[in-house]
Write a structure and sequence with these properties.
TIM Barrel, two-stranded antiparallel sheet, 10 strands, alpha/beta, 16% strand, binds zinc ion
Length: 247
């Protein structure tokens, strides 16, 4: 039985090695996402130094799409994706810049999904405030596995679509205090749920706790919701993780 943090950002920690060592001691698996191309390189290096503990996803986040500039070097990106375990964190978010046709966010999102389709790698999607647009675009690609990271569910039919398409949803520490997320966790099928921390994000409502150490509590929260024992839930989550990451 192995607990996993399926979505954190090791390049954003002051000392990623201490986070990795701690996970190693606990027998955890970490999946580190990038938000830009420089972070992708660092993730690949950390994975090479820590085989077995770390997987890495490569991608340009909505926050960095316009900073990466208009040159979309498809070939270079494909190489990066082939060397990685998946594509992420990618998506759309109106908080950072505009999302219209031809916008940098949209161009990056499309190009990265194309790379995921071509390579058969799983994808981690950020869809805050743009759930509808993200699902419309995702529906035009043939993707092996999709994870809607920190998805909160909306009353606009998108939750039902996430379920019917068999997308994975990852729950983080907010599950422990958010009624909305606990309701959502009962709607998403049990075999599509994963645990994440989005570290180094910390949670005021949890006294500033954050990072991979919180994953055990999230798994416990899911176990309670589903009426399982902790180890049974952890085993299911581990199976879900293998299904998401693939061979
Ligand atoms: Zn993130």
């Amino acid at each position: 039985m192995r607990l996993a943090d399926v979505h954190l950002h090791l390049p954003e920690y002051q000392d990623p090695s201490s986070v990795i060592d701690n996970a190693k001691d606990r027998g955890m698996l970490l999946v580190s996402c990038a938000v830009n191309l420089a972070q992708t390189d660092l993730n690949l290096r950390l994975r090479a130094e820590n085989p077995g503990v770390l997987r890495c996803f490569s991608g340009v986040h909505p926050s960095d799409a316009s900073k990466e500039g208009p040159v979309l070097d498809r070939e270079r990106f494909l190489e990066l994706v082939r060397a990685s375990d998946g594509v992420g964190e990618i998506g759309l978010d109106p908080k950072y810049s505009e999302l219209g046709e031809g916008s940098m966010q949209r161009r990056w999102f499309l190009m990265q999904l194309e790379a995921a389709e071509k390579t058969g790698k799983p994808v981690q999607v950020h869809s805050r405030g743009s759930e509808r647009q993200c699902l419309d675009i995702l529906g035009t690609f043939r993707l092996r596995a999709v994870l809607m990271h920190w998805f909160e569910g909306q009353e606009d039919g998108t939750t039902g679509e996430v379920v019917s398409r068999g997308y994975f949803v990852s729950f983080g520490p907010a599950l422990l205090y958010s009624k909305r997320l606990r309701t959502l966790a009962r709607v998403i099928s049990e075999d599509r749920e994963l645990t994440e921390s989005d570290g180094p994000v910390s949670f005021k409502a949890l006294g500033g706790a954050g990072g991979p150490d919180t994953v055990a509590s999230v798994a416990f929260g899911l176990a309670e919701l589903w009426g399982h024992g902790f180890s049974d839930m952890a085993r299911r989550l581990d199976e879900n993780l293998s299904a998401f990451l693939g061979p």
